[in-house]
Amino acid sequence: MSIIIGVLEEGLIYAIMSLGVYITYKILDFPDLSVDGTFPMGAALTAALILKGLPPVLILLIAFLAGALAGIITGLIHVKLKVRDLLSGIIMMTALYSINLRIAGKANLPIFSKETIFDNTWLNEIVPETLVPYQVVIILLVIVVICKVLLDWYLQTRSGYLLRAVGDNDVLVTSLAKDKGVVKIVGLAIANGFAALAGCVYCQQKSFFEISIGTGTMVIGLASVIIGTKVFNRFGFLKATTAVILGSIVYKACVSIAIAMGMEPSDLKLITSILFLLILVFSNQKEKKVKAHA
Amino acid sequence: MLELNYINKFYNAGTVNEMCLFDDFSLQIQSGEFVSVVGSNGSGKTSMLNIICGSIPIDSGAIVINGKNITNMPEYLRQRRIGRVYQNPAMGTCPSMTILENMALADNKGKPFNFRRGTNRQRTSFYREQLQMLGLGLEDKMEVKVGVLSGGQRQAMALLMSTMTPIEFLILDEHTAALDPKTADIIMELTGRVVREKKLTTIMVTHNLRFAVEYGNRLVMMHQGQAVIDKAGAEKAELKVEDILEQFNAISIECGN
Fold it and tell me: Which of B76, B143, B172, B175 is the mutation pick for testing A, counting most A CBs within 10 A?
């Protein structure tokens, strides 16, 4: 039971970030590596601000905005300075490593016994005894559902339509007399906002910031998006955003199965990347089969 | 009125591969004209459209629309008054969005793309009407993704979408070249109707000499960055395919083709 709870917790935290990767990878067709920097940035900000005594809920918002700002910078590097998409992300990711160290002050910043969205006096009063083991999962679920509903809503607005159009056919966006660069920047802002928000939630749940937590964030996000869209899209009634959230949980489940089968926790990133590779190869083969039958 | 004044455009300027595309090229297009542009490959037809739309920069010269110099205006801003249909049917629509969503996108051109709902359901009957005009049965497939439509269907939609909101100029860049002859005829008929009904100033680049002769009230033949034939009004009306074919062959021989 505790393993399942653990998988759900991890899966839901990374689901927030995966929604962001869904925007960049699936909608914008932009392989954005800046999430490897914005995820820990959200965590670093959170640790620093919680120690300053800011309300944990407000920090969620601050983290999102800070992530969005980083996304905007990645976008500006790509659009205005005409640097290739992958390189823009790498530049931002590398720069953020130092920035994150500056924000946190050191490579490892614990915030144990501080009030967070998961552990505070108000919650301790209202949550009944029987629900306490599920408290974290329930709170995470609420956050993830809010993010999903907001993103679904946004993608149905006029602005959201443009975002979907720009990854699909940016010539059309120009034909609509809109600057496609601005639309891309908006997309990157939202995506990195989600990544930093996920980092913020991660930090509040684990009660610490650690500089290396960002490594492989994009791989996890991509794996979730690909599992989600390839596996769960067969059920036509599921929205892509829902599929991505489920993908994230399935992916974390696979990782914890690998660890339960005897891998060391230090092998985590190795497992992460090998699993991702398997998913990529597997989903490629499926596509070939579909084409062969067509 | 659209004016191209003394346009100079070189590719690879300053290298051994320097190629002169336009050398003091000037062209004026009056409001309400439907200009067919023909010419061999590399004669500068599509480059001319790209220069008008701002897709490629020019070395010197001026592009003036209704007295306003737009030479330095970015491409996307020029598109406010311009509708453009490309040779590639995929360029004018969004494949992963539905027909209804595509129509809504085009309908919102010129309006702010804010947080209001992307598809205004009250406009659905208007979209249906517009699609009915095409006679392709698309009005019954509003929830279908555009990616599954055929090239001809997509091109018909692209034409519809680019002329849905008020524009001054319609730019057609070999928009029937990728279609089979029958579909090309349908799209061309549709083009003629839309241009007539909306009284659009139109520039159509085509390799189809028959279309160039049958449609439009002015014909321009381009060769090495110059307009070698430019006939309008009665002169254009008398023009036959054979006349321009003769000229075309003369040019081609000259080039050694």
Answer: B76
